[in-house]
Amino acid sequence: MKKFFQEFKKFISRGNVMDMAVGTIIGAAFTAIVTALSNGILKPIINMVLYYCFGGDNDALDKMYTVLVKVYKVEDGKQVLDLANSILIDWGAFISAIINFLLVAFVLFLIIRTFNNIKDGAEKTKNIENIINFKNSKGIKLNKKELAYLEEKRAKEEAAAALEAKKKEEEAKPAPKDPVVELLEEIRDSLNKNQQN
Fold it and tell me: How would residue 60 be classed by pLDDT, with cut points 50, 70 and 90?
C-alpha cells in the first residue's frame, strides 16, 4: 500500500500532470467567460444580422430559424409563430457556438505557446552553457552570442554578489540605539555618579 501511494505521489508531482491541472482550471474559467460573451453579446448581434439579411420583417423570423414544427398563437388578432413552443433550429446559436469554440481554442493556443516558449528558453540556456563548456574544453573560440551570454551571466553574478555583500554589511553593523534607551542610560549613569559623590 505504501508503494502505491509513493507511485501516486510521484505521478502527481510530475510537471506535466500539474500543467494539465492548471490548464484544465484556466480553460474552464475562460470557457465560462467566452460563453457569457458569446451568448450575451455575440449571439444577439448575429441574430440581428441574420434578421436584417432575411428582410427585417415578420417573415424574416421564419427564414432566420429552420422551423421543424410550427406552433402559432394569436396576438392582436393576428396569427403569429410562437417561437417558445415551436421546434426549430437556431442558426444564430450554432454560429455563436462556432465562434465560442474558435475563441477558446485561440486563447488556449496562446497560453500553450507562451509556456512552450518559456520551456524552450530554459532549454536554450542549458544548451548554450553546454556548448560553451565544450568549446572551452576543446580550445575553440566562442562566437559573439556566446560571449554576450557569458558577459550577461557575469554581470548577473556580480550584481548578486554585490547585493549579498551589502546585505552582510548591513547585518554586521550594530543596530542604532533607541534615543529613549540612550537617554535612560545617561540618566542612570548620572544618578550613579551622584550616589557615589
Answer: low
Q: Cα-atom radius of gyration of the chain, to the nearest Å?
A: 37
Domain that holds residue 97: 2-123
How many domains does one find in the chain?
A: 1
Burial 151-190 (b: 16+ CB within 10 A, else e): eeeeeeeeeeeeeeeeeeeeeeeeeeeeeeeeeeeeeeee
Q: Does residue 41 register a pLDDT over 70?
A: yes
Element of type H or E holding 75? strand 72-75
Q: Tell me the C-alpha distance between 127 and 155, whole Å.
A: 20
Grid cell for residue 2? 505504501
pLDDT for 180 beyond 80: yes
10-24, 43-57, 145-159: least confident range: 10-24
H-run or E-run covering 79: strand 78-81
Q: Render the burial of 4-21: b for 16+ CB within 10 Å, e for the rest.
A: eeeeeeeeeeeeeeeeee
